[in-house]
Amino acid sequence: MGAAEHEHAHGDHRHSHGLLDPRIKRSKEGLRAVGLALLVLGLTAIGQVLIFALSGSVALLADLIHNFGDAATAIPLGIAFALRSARAERWAGLAVVFAIFVSACVAGYTAIDRLIDPQEVDHLGALAAAGAMGFIGNWIAALIRSRAGKRLDSPALVADGAHARADAYVSLAVIASAAAVAIGLAVADPLIGLAITSVILKITWDSWRTVRRAARRPRSLPG
């Protein structure tokens, strides 16, 4: 093989690595971000399950359902990054929106059921702690997802980050529920559950708009 041919082949070899390496790096970074957020939200949800078993708060249940749904969105996002596919990421974004909407429906149904058939809420200190736990867990997950989404130019991760950030504030409503019940306003618990549901529906709409705008914008993954 002549010098020119060798140089050309070597140039092609370098070019192949230039195409492949950014995609592999992006995939690994995306999977790392999704995995870390899943771990944080999973631990948060497990802690809240234990406290819900003690308190029976519908506001906490609404937050808990949403946190489990939020954690579950890691599955389609993880698959999309593993496949290194822009199309798969767009579908993952739609899956995220659908998961948020389903969690809103379940939380809303539970809150209405508790308004019709009230139940006593106990262990108010633990309930407030669960709200604080939800705030911290979602805030950390939001930071992980948002930073990775902007760095990797992933609308699905950006939408999921905004979703988790809003969830952090929603979790504060659980603390408000504990305070309201403590002063004798038991009906405040399911009402706050309904308020959380309305916030989740707003998050659904905002996330849908983010994903839809990204789908209309021509974009290909690096490489």
Topology:
Elements (H helix, E strand, L loop, with lengths): L2 H53 L2 H15 L1 H10 L2 H31 L7 H29 L2 H28 L5 H29 L7
End-to-end distance: 29 Å
Total strands: 0
Structural class: mainly alpha
Using only C-alpha atoms, the radius of gyration works out to 22 Å
Strand content: under 5%
Provide an overview of this structure.
By secondary structure, this protein is mainly alpha-helical. The protein has one domain: Alpha-lytic protease prodomain-like. The protein has seven helices and no strands. Helix 2 packs antiparallel against helix 6. It is elongated, with a radius of gyration of 22 Å. 44% of the residues are buried.
Short description:
The protein is an all-alpha fold and 223 residues long.
What features would you highlight for this structure?
single chain, 223 residues, mainly alpha, Alpha-lytic protease prodomain-like, 7 helices, 0% strand, disordered N terminus
